[in-house]
Amino acid sequence: MNSSDTTDQTRKKGFHLFKLHAEENDDGYLNRIPIFQFILLSCLFPMWGAAASLNDILITQFKTIFTLSNFASAFVQSAFYGGYFIIAIPASLVIKKTSYKLAILIGLLFYTVGCSLFFPASTMATYSIFLVALFAIAIGLSFLETSANTYSSLLGPQKSSTLRLNISQTFYPVGAVAGILMGKYMIFDSGASLDKQMSGLTGQARISFGEQALQKTLLPYKYIIVILLIAIIIFALTEFPKSKTKGNGVKEAKISETLKYLIHNKEFVKGILTQFMYIGMQTAVWSFTIRLAMSLNSNINERDASTFMVYSYIAFFVGKMIANVLMDKYSPSRVLKWFSVAGSLSLIYIIFVHNMSAVYAAVLVSGLFGPCWATIYSKTLDTVQDKRHTETAGAIIVMSIIGGAFLPLVQGLAADLMNSMSYSFVISLISFVVVFFYSVDQIKHNNL
Q1: Is residue 27 part of a domain?
Q2: Are 396 and 69 in contact (CB under 8 A)?
Q3: 5 within domain boundaries
Q4: How far apart are CA 65 and CA 87, in angstroms?
Q5: With a cut of 50, which residues of the chain have pLDDT below it?
Q6: Where would I find the H helices in 117-156?
Q7: Nearest-CA neighbor of 293 among 65, 55, 73, 60?
Q8: What is the domain-level CATH number for residue 82?
Q9: Which tens digit of pLDDT belongs to each residue from 349-361?
Q10: Which residues pair with 18 in a beta bridge?
Q11: How far apart are CA 398 and CA 146, in angstroms?
């Protein structure tokens, strides 16, 4: 091969500092796991973990500063997860027409823009502008999740796709813990709770105090922007596989054809509904754990209560690690069943035991979320036998994240109506029971 041939091949493939060392099969999976690319892709998971956990901080902060009900404060999650719902299909179309890598780069760019919008939002000091900034972040995260969840399952042999996605998901709580710690020490103050500090203030003094508190929300997002810019550069310089099925002359499916196929796929629909309930439950539990702690102990402040969220995300990490080990010996559906039973019992404890031990039960529930998302996602994607529909199917599973916009509102409303944060966790209990029945159905359906 002469130098001109080499130059032509380089031009066709593009310049990449970090090369790919794996071959792509006809079904889109790889013959082996490209370690560097897989690790790099897995590093995206803590990025949206940090954004999601900061929402739990913002809900508590905004509730006091803007004098919101539990229902109204939950709109933080509605703006966030609503963005996922709206953008997931467009993101899948970008993947379908271009590549997973380009969709990831677009996601990182929108994430950066959304974080930057916190600067004018903190200056304008209105709740609605913060919701706009969160929606912009969600646009970026929708691109990232639509790409990364499916892509992670494809970066290697098909037989280990569920385990691979679970391993990538294990990185999520690392970012979540980082987000909570940034919120705890950069946003929340020590001393009396924010509510107590503002209770004696009126008029301009209260407004000024609130504006100063809102300025603190900028600090975590400054660091996130720097990390995102570095990630954009590294991804741009790394070669990734297309991970698309070889057409072999088969005409590409239209979006209408894909939707018709998926709607009539009963197992796929079951997975979507279960993922909707699971994400809603996960978001609701994490949204109100801080509020639960403060409702059960009026002597602690926001910073102290946020420590329980640090414990929750550590438990989530440990739960995922335990689930990964168990899945090496037992089927993912059986592991999901065991975790959902324990999770349901823990939520019953939260509902009926009104002391601080219930907060530790909420921490335990977070650990029992371990196998849920990745197992439900992978099992649902596996029901798509016609691989022409894979990208759109992955996007629709991500769209089920809209549960995170809906169920926290329901639980917040329940807390307001019953005047009890503890009793409101019945909404999360119902959701974990749904996950249990899904796991039982999967065991029966697949004779596991």
Answers
A1: no
A2: no
A3: no
A4: 30
A5: 1-12
A6: 118-124, 127-154
A7: 60
A8: 1.20.1250.20
A9: 999 999 999 999 9
A10: 238
A11: 6
